[in-house]
Specification:
2 domains, 245 residues, mainly alpha, 7 helices
């Protein structure tokens, strides 16, 4: 028979060590993010209408892009978990969801900061804003579900199902500015913005991707340690009970 991949197999795993490569990645990611911000701010002139406020785009847009990518990763890894039932895929999905939730919250916060001087209000029930808020609530619910379900196998299956279904909202968020009447501008991309802003946007997108990857690996490593510690404690408790029989 093949090796079990469920949570019951966690006791057979060796305690993982976080490699030096992850630490190096962290330094590269955060230094790259700082460098991308310097380049973006110094090489692009203030917008004619919004002035320097426009430069929120260098964080707002990459945060949204990488949030979408994180949720797509949740979708893929959740599907693999339902197929393989490997507990590590469940932990990867959870780690990616956490990263995506943080980036989505950052996207909304920066959007509100931009909206107040531009639209005159902090919040309006615009289709893009509303669907993004719904996406944040859905994935926050995903995280809450994981906290409420104690049985790890059941938690993994239920979370995977929610992670797959929740992704259906991501393309709705992306296309909302085209499907419905919206005061939000169309999707920002190198083809829809002034060429002067393209380099800064691309550099920040890469930097945000590296930062998200770093946080994903760190959170996944911490989650593995938590699972392995719980599995060892349970095994020791059962062994202790059997020794007294």
């Amino acid at each position: 028979m093949g090796r079990s991949t469920g949570y019951a197999a966690a006791t057979a795993e060796r305690v993982p060590r976080q490699g030096r490569g992850v630490t190096v990645l962290g330094w590269i990611a955060f230094l790259g993010l700082a460098g991308a911000q310097v380049v973006a701010f110094n090489l692009s002139a203030p917008d004619r209408d919004m002035g320097h406020l426009q430069k929120i785009m260098y964080v707002h847009v990459p945060a949204a892009w990488i949030a979408f990518l994180s949720f797509f990763f949740v979708f893929v890894v959740s599907s693999i978990y339902l197929w393989r039932r490997d507990w590590r895929h469940d932990l990867l999905a959870a780690a990616a969801a956490e990263v995506g939730v943080v980036l989505t919250a950052l996207t909304l916060a920066l959007g509100m900061i931009w909206a107040r001087p531009t639209w005159g209000v902090w919040w309006t029930w615009d289709p893009r804003l509303t669907t993004t808020a719904i996406m944040l609530v859905i994935y926050a619910g995903y995280m809450a579900l994981r906290g409420f379900v104690e049985d790890p196998e059941r938690r993994g299956v239920w979370s995977a199902a929610v992670g797959i279904l929740a992704f259906l909202n991501v393309p709705v968020v992306y296309m909302s500015v085209r499907w419905w009447r919206s005061i939000h501008q169309v999707q920002s991309s190198p083809s829809t913005i002034d060429p002067e802003y393209v380099l800064g946007l691309r550099l920040n997108a890469v930097a945000f991707l590296l930062v998200a990857l770093y946080f994903l690996l760190r959170r996944y490593h911490a989650a593995r340690l938590e699972v392995l510690a719980a599995a060892r404690l349970e095994e020791d408790a059962l062994t202790g009970e059997e020794a007294h029989v």
